[in-house]
Amino acid sequence: MNGPSWYGVINSGSSKSFVVYLLAASSLAVASTFFISHGPSSPYGFQDQHVILSSRSVRVWPELEVNWRSGLATVIGFLGSAFGTVGGVGGGGIFVPMLTLVVGFDAKSAAALSKCMIMGASASSVWYNLRVAHPSKEVPIIDYNLALLFQPMLMLGITIGVELSVVFPFWLITILIIILFIGTSSRSMFKGVQMWKKETLLKMEMRKQEEAKSNQEVVGTDTTSEPLLHRPEKSMLVSANSYALTSKINLPLYYVVYHLILLYSDAVDGLKEALRFNIRWKGISVLMVVWFSFLLLQILKNNSETCSLFYWVVNILQFPVALSVFSWEATKLWRESRQRRMQGNWESVCEASIEWTGMQLVFCAFCGLLGGTVGGLLGSGGGFILGPLLLEIGVIPQVASATATFVMMFSSSLSVVEFYFLKRFPIPYALYLISVSVMAGFWGQFFVRKLVKFLKRASIIVFILSSVIFASALTMGVVGTEKSITMIKNHEYMGFLSFCEK
């Protein structure tokens, strides 16, 4: 790159507009809660003796049975996990309505089960991505620098979101989710269209170059880079062609078996090589330390009395844990980016094509915290914020999907443990849905990435991301509207609930 990257400059105005939209709309929604709860125009005020204080949902756990409901939930869960992990958003906005409308779980139990599904799908997707080469560089497809930057704030936000889910009324959570999802879906769709146009121009230019070389019959080296295409994947599977070729030759059985053993050994060696290259143990070790720190604090918190002094001390301790790791990674990115700019080197420090200034880092911290809070409220993995954000800062779709899924694996597993201590989900249903999502996550990554390679359009991943977010906004809107109408008819209290009485 011969000059500074103007990506951050170009997108700074639109990013600020999006933040202003999000803050204004969310503030209006939260303020309306006080109006509905205590306002004079509300038909059912807080002091009305006929109001039913039932914003806390009653636990409903259907039995795991073989019927049309479980069958339909399996199909929706499989498709949602497959496309959700490819887009890097998880799919919680689809799982929660599916578990409430189709299966019959209450909203908060559905959110907990949604986390289980996201954990399973993200784990299998990470395993797949560890075997995949970066589209254009000799680096892992998972950006560990970005993972270290966002994961601590995402986990902090999730713990905040879980607590707020007890206090916030259902209708308010629904409105906040719709506001957020419509904004992120629109931004992602716009970016996908831009990428599609660039890919079309690139393919046309490559076709012209090939035609010119064919006409001139000139043999040369093609220096055109293809940043959006996959290199061959390293797989542990034995080649079917090799087996077929061997089986057609009339050879002794022991020789065929020996040959297959050699093929399998080569495949295993290739897998080991890919894993050694793609795994960065230092980054994973830091992420595991953060994960276990939050887990320990959650265990201590859940074994303490709500709103006691020890309870608040444990809650507050989560902030220095998250902020220390975030500050460490942010400082490293800022120093390296500054040093490169001083030397006249405008190459990006990591996969994000922005200059890591103080404002950019604060914005990333805010988005990570927001994504985690949304994940805790809804039961998603935070990918509805992280996935679009990675695209916004210039990360290519394949890396954005792999990195967001990698971060979600840690955040969703932490939420599953926390929900387990809160006894929010039935174990049999959780194990079944996890098994479905594990298979869906792997095969979703396999088929979509093959499609991207065949069509030579990475923008497909962005369109999938936008579509999943929009579908989540639509389903959440339908469920939320129906629930709110029922609450109004039943004269239920629709304001904030007491935190210390949860």
Automatic annotation (TrEMBL):
Keyword Membrane appears in the UniProt entry: yes
Signal peptide (from-to): none
Pfam families hit by this protein: TauE
Ubl conjugation listed as a keyword: no
One Gene Ontology biological process: proteasome-mediated ubiquitin-dependent protein catabolic process
Sorted UniProt keywords: Membrane, Transmembrane, Transmembrane helix
Record-level GO cellular component terms: Cul4A-RING E3 ubiquitin ligase complex; membrane
Subcellular location(s) of the protein: Membrane
Membrane topology: Multi-pass membrane protein
Regions that span the bilayer: 18-36, 72-98, 168-190, 279-297, 309-331, 361-387, 399-422, 429-448, 460-479
Family (UniProt): Belongs to the 4-toluene sulfonate uptake permease (TSUP) (TC 2.A.102) family.
Protein name in the entry: (wild Malaysian banana) hypothetical protein
Origin species: Musa acuminata subsp. malaccensis (Wild banana)
Taxonomic lineage of the native organism: Eukaryota, Viridiplantae, Streptophyta, Embryophyta, Tracheophyta
